[in-house]
Design brief:
Layout (H helix, E strand, L loop, with lengths): L6 H10 L7 E2 L11 H4 L9 H7 L2 E5 L19 E6 L5 E7 L10 E2 L5 H42 L5 H6 L6 H11 L6 H5 L4 H13 L3 H4 L1 H7 L9 H24 L3 H6 L1 H13 L13 H23 L2 H5 L22 H7 L3 H14 L20 H25 L21
Antiparallel strand pairs: 1-2, 2-3, 3-4, 4-5
Length: 441
């Protein structure tokens, strides 16, 4: 609440907040976002041009094009599709240096800058965070963890018998997922659900955003290291989501590899397992995006990677984008769930009264805060990553692999705890002792 309006805190959240997957390195300014060197010169290192900073990898971008053209639910709330340019400054902070509140540049869509008056700049950042809230909830959180995990679970139940080792491996990681998603469909994303009540979207608008998110979804984007690479974020400073996520990915990959090698002596064994092949085909069908998901697996390594994606998505990825919601959404000005005034089409036309009238009203704010708090809570008797009390496996080598997995997770937990001791803000969403096994809330 003290630092929410500062540029460094605004930028920090794209790295380590609720939605740390939108930011990407920018190597060329998009035509639709005509930022010039003259506009941002005062915010860059002295004597360095914008083009030089682009080539050096110090410029980042967040683009909410997915919201372009989505209608607002009424004439009393508003929605737009902003673009934000960010810069890695000399303090290794990621800070905003330019914001455009639409996808269409021109006289009615000025580019807001940190040098504008404080109300213009504050409101522009609020509009970005309001768009981020919607994309986070519907795409990053709901679609890419909850709904995807349900596809994996449905395919598992349909194609794998309960005695299959992969069924036993995945079972703890789909616990309660179908149940919680049924509640989400009824309470959160229905026509009169919570999202419609607190945001600018109707049920149809919600469906449109999710459908657009689905069109961009690929198997590769679910592979954590490949997604980091594709967004150019391997070297971004203080990106704890990446640092901790890579450790968890590696731990899960090592564990799955050990289990797969116990049951599959060769690549040919994988190819001959028709139950696994049908499982993969069913997932591809369920994603309704078959050209972007594998339809078969030919090697043990492909199987290991595939099962790592399933487990990581349901456990670590969900934890990373779910359990920080009250931390970041509990203070409404930091992430307004909707905006009640149109976005400014000219500079120097807004004041604090306009900003207050733009923010969600008391009813929407209260419902949003209550929802964020509820979704950020752990379940009673939560089962965290590496906890398998049912112990579906009876083979001793698998039991040993689980022990090794738990030991590696403990080491990661300790590394994160030591790192956090030196931070002003703890990043603990990907600490293994705070990662539930499955999408269960």
């Amino acid at each position: 609440m003290q630092d929410w309006s500062k540029d460094y805190m605004f930028g920090y959240q794209f790295l380590n907040g609720c939605n740390p997957v939108m930011i990407r390195k920018c190597m060329a300014i998009p035509v639709k976002f005509p930022v010039t060197h003259e506009m941002v010169e005062g915010f860059l290192k002295k004597g360095v041009t914008l083009q030089e900073e682009l080539m050096a990898g110090n410029i980042f971008i967040v683009d909410y094009e997915i919201l372009n053209g989505v209608p607002a639910s009424s004439d009393q709330v508003f929605l737009t599709a902003p673009i934000c340019l960010l810069y890695k400054n000399r303090f290794d902070q990621i800070v905003p240096i330019a914001i455009q509140l639409s996808q269409n540049p021109g006289g009615k869509s000025p580019i807001f800058l940190p040098s504008d008056n404080e109300y213009d700049w504050m409101l522009a950042k609020m509009w970005v965070k309001s768009a981020d809230f919607i994309v986070h909830q519907l795409v990053t959180h709901l679609l890419k963890t909850h709904l995807i995990s349900e596809v994996f679970e449905m395919a598992m139940h349909r194609q794998l018998p309960a005695v299959h080792p992969v069924y036993k491996l995945l079972k703890p990681h789909v616990r309660f997922t179908i149940a919680i998603n049924a509640v989400a469909r009824e309470k959160l994303i229905s026509d009169d659900g919570i999202i419609s009540k607190i945001s600018s979207l109707t049920g149809d608008g919600i469906a449109e955003v999710i459908k657009s998110g689905m069109e961009t979804l690929t198997y590769k984007s679910l592979c954590f290291p490949e997604d980091i690479e594709a967004r150019g974020m391997k070297d971004a400073p203080k990106y704890y989501y990446r640092d901790d996520g890579m450790k968890i990915w590696d731990a899960i990959h090592n564990f799955v590899s050990a289990v797969v090698k116990i049951y599959y002596e060769s690549d040919e064994t994988v190819q001959r397992d028709m139950e696994i092949q049908r499982f993969v085909q069913d997932v591809s069908f369920g994603m309704n995006n078959s050209d972007k998901f594998p339809e078969s697996l030919k090697t043990r390594e492909e199987l290991v990677k595939y099962l790592t994606v399933v487990i990581f998505t349901a456990s670590a990825q969900h934890a990373a984008v779910n359990f920080g919601q009250f931390d970041w959404y509990g203070w409404i000005p930091n992430s307004p769930t909707t905006m009640r005034k149109p976005h400014p089409e000219q500079k120097a036309r807004v004041d604090m009264d306009y900003i207050m009238e733009s923010l969600p009203d008391l009813g929407r704010s209260s419902l949003a805060i209550g929802t964020a708090w509820t979704l950020s809570q752990f379940q009673n008797n939560e089962l965290y990553l590496g906890m398998y009390p049912e112990m579906c496996f009876i083979e001793q080598p698998v039991k040993e692999a689980i022990k090794t997995f738990c030991k590696e997770l403990d080491e990661v937990t300790n590394i994160i705890k030591r790192r956090n001791e030196g931070l002003a803000f703890d990043y603990c969403y990907l600490s293994p002792d705070k990662i539930p096994n499955s999408v269960a809330i």
